[in-house]
């Protein structure tokens, strides 16, 4: 007898609907799974066999063939267990065929028939909805995530028996309630009002948040670089519904989603400097998202930048330029979103006290050169703002003068972002850092005095074309913060002040 049941798997960030075709025929007892299944899927034979027997159902001692279609798509998920098990029940005549029509079944089976959760539920359900499926059965532990998908009836279940009884219309399951909601404003435990002094650094981070620019902070140990970086999410605009959905899908596929609602707080990722290239950019035989993708729509903070292996840092070039990561492996070629703000921090030298007024530097000129050369010129060229961070003075630390709060700064950032959205709407962009040369030409008018200053800057600093464009983009953001329509010489001068080179002996 033949049966057709529908399950789903993940490839990259995309859900794929899998047709589980089951045939039970005469012949020597056997159980075969075909259709480009990985080891995790092939091992489901033993899980399904034990789950059916321990749930009180008959396992047919006949020739069982399972085909996973489309056959040319790699299947790498234990989440097909439930669909395979129900396919055997339908093909064996223990379950009416019409009970599973146009329904998805996603879940791993334990040996006793319990349904275990799987990762990537949200993109699976979104793809199922796009292909006309309206009902899904999944593990009760995936209920909160499954309920995020609108227009889908989600039935959470603890065991295979519960699903069977529901399909036989004996004991109906309760459908999960829809919990998807528009992203609100998140609450933060840190605030810029806690940072005393550091006015230049705070101004640079405000510009970065307003225009989506990358920042490199250089300063002595304990100057406050990490403290400043951890507070930049508090001044970023809140995510809209589309951005929240993108981030939630990424975290779902990565197995990092454990919430009852969509993620509304922008990601802030801070990997240790011992991270591998695959950990940062993504990797594996079937590539999984790395830290740059987990930082999408948020912030990637790299503390002690020169301590990262140079080869690891160099893989940042493409995502910083394109906002995407393209990974090609033998089994799959995938593309992941990676549009983030890079915040990097480093000491000026190995000991950390070069040019420090209160501490003598103990490094030799050769040590400083080797330390600085760990960061390549092309990578530095992709960082818009280079900011010196000096250790605060005692008077600043003990001052009682109130500092600007994150809320006050965020209001200015939001006003600047709204100007950018209106101006860049025809290009489907939403912040200045994403502009290309064409958008710069068409949307960044510069006053005559500014043009003269820009020419002097270009000739004096011997800028590359990329650096030239980035100065204009930063200037455009500074003008947006000032609510100005035209870039002036003053805006350009401030933008150039952030093009500091690395420390030199």
TrEMBL record:
UniProt superkingdom: Bacteria
Pfam families, A to Z: ChlI, Mg_chelatase, Mg_chelatase_C
UniProt-listed Gene3D superfamilies: 3.30.230.10, P-loop containing nucleotide triphosphate hydrolases (3.40.50.300)
SUPFAM superfamilies: P-loop containing nucleoside triphosphate hydrolases, Ribosomal protein S5 domain 2-like
GO MF entry, a single one: DNA binding
Domain called AAA+ ATPase: residue spans: 211-393
InterPro entries (UniProt xref): AAA+_ATPase, CHLI-like, MCM_dom, Mg_chelat-rel, Mg_chelat-rel_C, Mg_chelatse_chII-like_cat_dom, P-loop_NTPase, Ribosomal_Su5_D2-typ_SF
Keywords: ATP-binding, Nucleotide-binding
Family, per entry: Belongs to the Mg-chelatase subunits D/I family. ComM subfamily.
PANTHER family: COMPETENCE PROTEIN COMM (PTHR32039:SF7), MAGNESIUM-CHELATASE SUBUNIT CHLI (PTHR32039)
Protein name: Mg chelatase-like protein
Protein source organism: Megasphaera lornae
């Amino acid at each position: 007898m033949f049966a057709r049941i529908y399950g789903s798997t993940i490839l990259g960030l995309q859900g794929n609907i899998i047709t589980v075709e089951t045939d039970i025929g005469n012949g020597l007892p056997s159980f075969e799974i075909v259709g480009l299944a990985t080891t995790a899927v092939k091992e489901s034979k033993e899980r399904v066999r034990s789950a059916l027997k321990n749930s009180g159902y008959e396992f047919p001692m006949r020739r069982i063939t399972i085909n996973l279609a489309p056959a040319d798509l790699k299947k790498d998920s234990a989440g097909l267990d439930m669909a395979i098990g129900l396919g055997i029940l339908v093909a064996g005549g223990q379950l009416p065929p019409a009970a599973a029509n146009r329904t998805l079944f996603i879940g791993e089976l334990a040996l006793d028939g319990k349904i275990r959760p799987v990762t990537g539920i949200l993109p699976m359900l979104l793809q199922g909805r796009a292909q006309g499926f309206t009902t899904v059965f999944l593990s009760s532990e995936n209920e909160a995530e499954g309920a995020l998908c609108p227009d889908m009836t989600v039935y959470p279940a603890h065991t295979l028996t519960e699903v069977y009884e529901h399909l036989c219309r004996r004991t109906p399951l309760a459908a999960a309630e829809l919990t998807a909601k528009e992203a609100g404003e998140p609450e933060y435990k840190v605030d810029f009002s806690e940072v005393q002094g550091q006015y230049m650094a705070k101004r640079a981070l405000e510009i970065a948040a307003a225009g989506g620019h990358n920042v490199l902070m250089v300063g002595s140990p304990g100057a406050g670089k990490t403290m400043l970086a951890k507070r930049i999410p508090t001044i970023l605009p809140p995510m809209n519904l589309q951005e929240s959905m993108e981030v939630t899908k990424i975290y779902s596929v990565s197995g990092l989603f454990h919430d009852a609602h969509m993620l509304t707080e922008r990601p802030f990722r801070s990997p240790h400097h011992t991270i591998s290239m695959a950990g940062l950019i993504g990797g594996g035989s079937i590539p999984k998202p790395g830290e740059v993708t987990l930082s999408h729509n948020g912030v990637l903070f790299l503390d002690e930048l020169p301590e990262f292996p140079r080869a690891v840092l160099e893989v940042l070039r493409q995502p910083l330029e394109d906002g995407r990561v393209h990974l090609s492996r033998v089994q799959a070629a995938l593309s992941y979103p990676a549009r983030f703000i890079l915040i990097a921090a480093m000491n000026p030298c190995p000991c950390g006290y070069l040019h420090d007024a209160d501490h003598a530097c103990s490094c030799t000129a050769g040590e400083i050169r080797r330390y600085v050369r760990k960061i390549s010129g092309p990578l530095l060229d992709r960082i818009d703002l280079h900011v010196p961070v000096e250790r605060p003075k005692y008077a600043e630390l003990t001052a009682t003068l109130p500092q600007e709060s994150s809320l006050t700064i965020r209001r200015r950032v939001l006003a600047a972002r709204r100007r950018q959205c209106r101006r860049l709407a025809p290009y489907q962009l939403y912040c200045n850092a994403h502009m290309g040369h064409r958008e710069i030409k068409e949307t960044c008018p510069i006053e005559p005095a500014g043009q003269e200053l820009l020419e002097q800057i270009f000739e004096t600093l011997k800028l590359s074309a990329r650096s030239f464009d980035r100065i204009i983009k930063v200037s455009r953001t500074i003008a947006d913060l000032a609510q100005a329509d035209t870039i002036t010489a003053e805006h350009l001068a401030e933008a150039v002040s952030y093009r500091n080179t690395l420390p030199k002996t």
